[in-house]
Known about the structure:
Blueprint: H1 8-33, H2 38-47, H3 66-78, H4 84-100, H5 103-115, E1 120-123, E2 139-143, E3 146-157, E4 164-170, E5 180-186, E6 192-194, E7 208-219, E8 223-224, H6 230-266, E9 268-269, E10 272-273, H7 278-306, H8 312-336, H9 347-356, H10 365-375
Parallel strand pairs: 1-4
Antiparallel strand pairs: 2-3, 3-7, 4-5, 5-8, 6-7, 9-10
Helix pairs in contact: 1-3, 3-6, 4-5, 4-6, 6-7, 6-8, 7-8, 8-9, 8-10
The structure holds flavin-adenine dinucleotide (FAD).
Domain Acyl-CoA dehydrogenase/oxidase C-terminal: 230-376
Protein name: Acyl-CoA dehydrogenase
GO molecular function: acyl-CoA dehydrogenase activity; flavin adenine dinucleotide binding
Amino acid sequence: xxxxxxxxxxxxxxxxxxxxxxxxxxxxxxxxxxxxxxxxxxxxxxxxxxxxxxxxxxxxxxxxxxxxxxxxxxxxxxxxxxxxxxxxxxxxxxxxxxxxxxxxxxxxxxxxxxxxxxxxxxxxxxxxxxxxxxxxxxxxxxxxxxxxxxxxxxxxxxxxxxxxxxxxxxxxxxxxxxxxxxxxxxxxxxxxxxxxxxxxxxxxxxxxxxxxxxxxxxxxxxxxxxxxxxxxxxxxxxxxxxxxxxxxxxxxxxxxxxxxxxxxxxxxxxxxxxxxxxxxxxxxxxxxxxxxxxxxxxxxxxxxxxxxxxxxxxxxxxxxxxxxxxxxxxxxxxxxxxxxxxxxxxxxxxxxxxxxxxxxxxxxxxxxxxxxxxxxxx
Length: 378
Ligand SMILES: Cc1cc2nc3c(=O)[nH]c(=O)nc-3n(C[C@H](O)[C@H](O)[C@H](O)COP(=O)(O)OP(=O)(O)OC[C@H]3O[C@@H](n4cnc5c(N)ncnc54)[C@H](O)[C@@H]3O)c2cc1C
């Protein structure tokens, strides 16, 4: 049954009910296997949660207001369901294809991405390094009406399940950052293979893999946008990707803090609730204030994004600041859980492990601060 997307409150309620009913009961199994089942994607697609901003002619809901995406992320976080795979599928790949694809490509791929029949991934990072996105070594050589792709990618979210992968390749030698193109590589293309799921310390319900291309034959009709403009497209898409990670950060920080507040009121030491000691009260007061600042900051960013005014530097600032805050909240809150927090399967332990990836993918905190400082003329 498709979820109605008429107003924010109804949409939130429907998302929550759907996740509780269809996804949460299965989630533990997926975490144990380190892989979500295909049924996850199909259920999300049937309910209308995929490709929300894609227009109806291509199978989406045509809701470009980013506040709907924020609600979905918040409900995923609250229900403890893995988020990175959905962000990569929805916020990154579907958006790339919708923005860059020609009419034929959109018709070919978007309806199946929106229905969950196909799973998408984005592959930029290479084993030699991911921070410098201009330094791509995977090469695509044009031979008549196809490219021959050679190279490899790593840490790719949805890497095991993905049927359609937007891959950054070098199509022309020259200066770093130039001559990069985006190719949509499909599941059964000859010369494409993938490794075993990578064993991560967190986000276990999200599959992550290495991808290998050995003389992989990709038709030129799978080129997204124009040849050699990949870096420009990548920069244009970054604000959305970083906004989505910031949304995860703020929703997670709020959720972690809320559940910890409940815990510290119940748990006692020295015959009083641990939350009533002055040290803990002040620490929680500080976290509460910072999380509330983050919410206002995020709301403002979403507003700017909806107006088309959210820049690459805005995205760097908020992604850096909110993900560092999430990590700080997760760390302090784990401490408040004592030994329980150190158990891998405790909520506080899981929150800490999941939070750790946030300052790494989508641009590390260090790289983001480089971007911010350059904008200051430094
Ligand atoms: C869970 C997870 C999911 C991911 N999913 C995807 C995905 O779907 N697609 C994809 O393409 N990639 C994905 N990645 C990869 C991610 O984007 C990279 O890990 C990230 O960009 C960093 O690259 P790297 O790991 O090669 O680190 P490196 O580039 O080797 O950097 C190592 C360290 O050096 C620091 N450093 C680098 N340059 C500078 C500098 N100029 N100044 C100061 N410090 C610097 C970095 O900040 C970092 O701390 C994922 C990663 C994780 C952990």
